[in-house]
Write a structure and sequence with these properties.
Elements: H1 2-7, E1 11-16, H2 18-21, H3 30-45, E2 49-54, H4 57-64, H5 74-97, E3 103-108, H6 110-114, H7 116-131, E4 135-140, H8 154-164, E5 169-174, E6 195-196, H9 217-230, E7 234-239, H10 245-250, E8 257-259
Parallel strand pairs: 1-2, 1-5, 2-4, 3-4, 5-7, 6-8
Antiparallel strand pairs: 7-8
Helix pairs in contact: 4-5, 8-9
Bound molecules: adenosine-5'-diphosphate (ADP).
């Protein structure tokens, strides 16, 4: 039962994808961002320990630099991420402060989680922030991360964060209600799957992203599920546009797709 799984949940990592934070023109969707902050603030006030993994830096940078599309030149892309990351954090800080919540920014590269010593420091800073009741906002350090040190997508990054932080639950908020039997953007008869006990058995159902801002589609979300479930973390994929979606998930209601952790 969903509600049984959710009873013991205290530490939650929430990842929100670019497609949930941006309009079709690529600019930041302020309404969605405000709604997300309101839900996380409520979760925090209920006593949950919340870590946010947020995409959207490049989208915010495109807006700030008045670019018409995502840059193809690598250095301009990194510069756009650098500009956008501060703009995004500024917005988060402004919105969370309305609820009296302090935020922190944690920019990670793959090396920070793969090198034993760096992982040790990363883990401890995360714990200190949680202890101080700060909501940490994590992102890949896109301004300096090039291919060989890149996670490439925030789905697997968020699963690795959930693993090292010993979270109980990882929530991936996307532009889709969960994992379907096939990509619902291409097939009308696709059906939503409510619960998955073995990620390996559904891997073949995942396709890539149809949106211009989404990166990994369902493929990277199922990779995240493998990392999370193998590390004892439940994972839910749900639609960021469903009202009070995070509250519904933590109350054990049947929204999205639940990937049950391995015991
Ligand atoms: P985000 O930016 O939230 O990470 P993505 O666009 O990367 O979102 O991933 C979600 C997309 O994955 C969906 O909108 C859909 O087009 C695609 N997709 C591919 N296969 C499936 C599937 N089996 N079930 C649901 N969505 C799928």
């Amino acid at each position: 039962m969903r509600s049984d799984y959710m009873k013991t949940v205290k530490r939650i990592v929430v990842k929100v994808g670019s497609s949930s934070l941006t309009h079709d023109n690529g600019l930041i969707n302020i309404h969605q961002l405000e709604d997300l902050v309101k839900q996380l603030a409520d979760l925090h006030n209920k006593g949950y320990e919340v870590i946010l993994v947020s995409s959207g830096a490049i989208a915010a940078g495109i807006g700030k630099l008045n670019l018409t599309s995502r840059p193809t030149d690598l250095f301009l892309l990194q510069a756009t991420a650098a500009v956008g990351q501060v703009a995004l954090i500024h917005l988060y800080q402004k919105l969370f402060s309305e609820y009296g919540i302090i935020v922190a920014q944690l920019l990670l590269t793959k090396e920070d989680l793969e090198d034993e010593k760096r992982l040790y420091y990363t883990k401890h800073v995360t714990e200190s922030l949680i202890e101080k009741k700060v909501i940490q906002i994590v992102n890949e350090n896109d301004a300096v991360a090039v291919d060989e040190i890149k996670f490439g997508d925030n789905d697997t990054l968020s699963a690795r964060v959930a693993k090292y932080a010993h979270a109980d639950l990882l929530i991936l908020l996307s532009d889709i209600d969960g994992l379907y039997t096939k990509n619902p953007n291409n097939f009308e008869d696709a059906e939503l799957i409510e619960e998955v006990k073995s990620v390996a058995s559904v891997k073949h159902l995942a396709g890539d992203s149809h949106s211009s801002v989404g990166t990994g589609g369902m493929i990277t979300k199922l990779e995240a599920a493998t990392i999370a479930n193998d590390s004892g973390v439940h994972m839910v994929i749900a639609n960021s546009k469903t009202p009070w979606v995070i509250k519904s998930i933590t109350e054990g209601k049947g929204v999205g797709t639940l990937f049950v952790r391995k015991e």
